């Protein structure tokens, strides 16, 4: 992705290396913590560490922040500070858009169907689309390589020529206080975006596609993951969000996470925030004034709360989650796809997701916005990461999040923020390093 007004922006320009100590795998065993995800049985951060993290977020104008740190066996720490929304403090259950961390859930949904034999990783996406009863694109091909299939594996590893294109108009960010977007909107947008004119009103071969051959170039693609999510609907007949709720979030015990804002209890809803200085918005994202319910004075400095908003492009970044549920998500991946004795993702597919799926030569020429050195299924590693570290960051308008696995030490961490951070001055990598080191030493 090259545009800062699209759904996912990973981290700052420089990302600290996440050191990994040598160590073997540890068996995952239930730790007796609450399956309902209240977090009441998880310890707060040590006071010294919390003070350091609070000072760091305050210096970066973060409105509210929640964090968690885990081992394979249990959530060890969870804590929060700052503001979730007007009149409500941030808690470990404060739930907000987590941006592209959602892609790890989308990958899990596809991998479940691969394990069931309903989707083939190296199959042509058109073979799936041809059998779909859901409204959407009937065929997806690069206009520059019309004879080369785009495969499901390409979607999960950012090897497609699908660019993010222009802003999606009525399918993009909009203030929505009622039900979630119609599940059919995703298919309609993909149809309009990927189907040549006159049937597709948003089709633009120059903006919607790169000139790379499918499978030959690494190009971070939000649209690729939206198409992957649509394939879940096409194969199962269930809208993507419904499938994930039933087959992933529920079995994983992530009971306070959902793609539908109205399913989140009101007391847990956090709102996005933007930081303004002298009337000018700061942070990664463009200034979406249509999401701000008040006028901003030219001399205003401080946080502004966005109205609730939503987009139908849920597979690439629409999940709403919190530090407690993401602790479970991190543990699930550390445990080979198992949570509380339930095999949510097959051990084989989990291992493949956290392994190199793209050749070093292709990764060396990656056009991703950060220095990728390895690409799994959604999960990736960056320059400076030691062996065994896999991560995914995310951002939405007014939010920031991050999840990291240190598979060698058997620990992981998650961060959820109710405001943006700056692309060139991101505190999250440093925070994650401190959390990982603390939980490894606990």
From TrEMBL:
Keywords: Signal. Residues 56-430 form the Beta-lactamase-related domain. InterPro entries: Beta-lactam-related, Beta-lactam/transpept-like, Diverse_Enzym_Activities, TAT_signal. Pfam families: Beta-lactamase (PF00144). Residues 1-27 form the signal peptide. Transmembrane segments: none annotated. This is Beta-lactamase-related domain-containing protein.
């Amino acid at each position: 992705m090259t545009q800062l007004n699209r759904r996912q922006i990973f981290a700052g320009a420089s990302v600290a290396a996440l050191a990994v100590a040598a160590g073997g795998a540890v068996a995952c065993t239930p730790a007796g913590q609450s399956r309902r995800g209240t977090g009441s049985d998880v310890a707060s951060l040590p006071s010294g560490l919390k003070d350091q993290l609070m000072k760091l977020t305050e210096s970066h104008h973060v409105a509210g922040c929640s964090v968690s740190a885990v081992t394979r066996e249990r959530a060890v720490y969870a804590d929060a500070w700052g503001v979730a929304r007007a009149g409500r403090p941030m808690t470990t259950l404060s739930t907000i858009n987590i941006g592209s961390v959602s892609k790890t859930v989308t990958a899990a949904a596809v991998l479940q169907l691969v394990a069931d034999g309903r989707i083939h990783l190296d199959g042509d996406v058109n073979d799936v689309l041809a059998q779909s009863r859901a409204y959407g694109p009937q065929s997806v091909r690069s206009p520059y390589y019309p004879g080369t299939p785009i495969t499901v594996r390409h979607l999960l590893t950012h090897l497609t020529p699908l660019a993010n294109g222009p802003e999606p108009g009525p399918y993009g960010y909009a203030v929505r206080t009622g039900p979630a977007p119609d599940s059919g909107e995703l298919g309609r947008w993909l149809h309009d975006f990927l189907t040549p004119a006159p049937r597709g009103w948003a089709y633009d071969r120059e903006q919607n596609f790169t000139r790379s051959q499918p499978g030959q170039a690494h190009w971070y693609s939000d649209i690729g993951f939206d198409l992957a999510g649509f394939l879940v609907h096409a194969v199962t007949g269930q809208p993507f969000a419904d499938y994930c709720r039933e087959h992933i979030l529920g079995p994983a015990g992530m009971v306070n996470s959902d793609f539908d804002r109205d399913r989140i209890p009101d007391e847990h809803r956090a709102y996005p925030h933007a930081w303004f200085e002298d009337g000018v918005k700061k942070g990664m994202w463009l200034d979406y004034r249509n999401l701000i319910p008040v006028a901003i004075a030219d001399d205003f400095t401080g946080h502004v709360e966005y109205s609730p908003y939503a987009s139908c492009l849920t597979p690439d970044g629409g999940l709403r989650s919190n530090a407690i549920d993401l602790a479970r998500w991190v543990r699930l991946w550390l445990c080979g796809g198992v949570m509380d004795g339930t095999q949510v993702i097959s051990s084989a597919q989990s291992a493949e997701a956290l392994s190199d799926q793209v050749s070093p030569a292709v990764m060396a020429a990656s056009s991703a916005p950060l220095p990728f050195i390895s690409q799994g299924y959604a999960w990736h590693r960056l320059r400076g990461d030691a062996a065994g570290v896999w991560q995914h960051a995310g951002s939405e308008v007014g939010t920031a999040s991050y999840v990291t696995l240190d598979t060698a030490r058997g620990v992981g961490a998650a961060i959820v923020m109710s405001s943006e951070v700056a692309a060139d001055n991101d505190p999250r990598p440093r925070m994650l390093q401190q959390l990982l080191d603390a939980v490894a030493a606990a």
